[in-house]
Amino acid sequence: MDDRSADATAERAPEGAAPDVAADRADAASPAATAPRRALPGTPRLRRVVAAAAALIAMSVLFVWSGRTTFDAEGRLPMPGGPVGNFGHVVAFGAIALAAAAAFDREGRPAGLLSRAGRWGFAVAAAYGLLDEIHQSATPGRISSVYDVFLDAGGAAVALLWPWAAGPGRDARPRRALLLLAAAATLATITGLTTVPGDLLLFDLVRSLR
User: Fold this and answer.
1) Which residue of 10, 19, 29, 129 could cross-link 6, Cys pair, CB 3.0 to 4.6 Å?
2) Nearest 5°: phi and psi at 122?
């Protein structure tokens, strides 16, 4: 489907229709949304409620985890470290982005980054990633990394670009998602093995404002 047909689809929206409805139709007509879609269980409202609840639960768990100051016998927090722990940011915030995008989508589908619902899902995940690191900076005995914020946003983008058949607004092929995933894995490995300049920039900023 070329750009002209996508434009024509958007133009055929009924007069007086809300702008977001026309935008949804344009998103659905984009080349990234032409993949076959699987039937999803439940009603759209139920799917949106479940997705919103999943996103809120995940963010709540991360909030509690970031506020932990309980150390083990060796003075360390009981959580994965190094590259594995860093890559956990990619997975966790990819899941949050998927759930948030489905909550914003009118049909409760896992919408992709090329749709409006997907962009809202990305914004929620990326913003929460920043807030999570700020919260971590303010927790006694904890530090935060500015690169973790990039890993959070990268994980959200990978999850929202991957060509799931059930959601609109996604690339037809996983090329961009794979490139982002490789970049995120590289960053997670480097920052997990060594201290990179600027790593504590956010931590120092938050502490200076206290």
Assistant:
1) 29
2) -65, -45
Q: Which three-class secondary structure string do you get for the chain? A: CCHHHHHHHHHCCCCCCCHHHHHHHHHHCCHHHCCCCCCCCCCHHHHHHHHHHHHHHHHHHHHHHHCCCCCCCCCCCCCCCHHHHHHHHHHHHHHHHHHHHHHHCCCCCCCCCCCHHHHHHHHHHHHHHHHHHHHHHCCCCCCCCHHHHHHHHHHHHHHHHCCCCCCCCCCCCCHHHHHHHHHHHHHHHHHHHCCCCCCCHHHHHHHHCC
The structure tokens 């809120």 sit at 56
Q: What distances in angstroms separate CA 79 from CA 66, 84, 148, 151, one per listed residue?
A: 11, 10, 15, 17
What's the pLDDT score for residue 38?
Answer: 58
Whole-prediction pTM:
0.77
Euclidean distance between CA atoms 23 and 134, whole angstroms: 34
Polymer length of the chain: 210
Q: Which two tokens stand for residue 9?
A: 């689809």
Q: Which residue has the tokens 């409620």?
A: 49
- Both tokens of 55, joined, read 């996103």
Per-residue pLDDT tens digits for 80-130:
678 998 999 999 999 999 999 999 999 999 999 999 999 999 999 999 999
Quote the tokens at residue 11. Answer: 């133009």
Alpha carbons 201 and 96: distance in angstroms, whole number: 25
Give SS3 for 168: coil
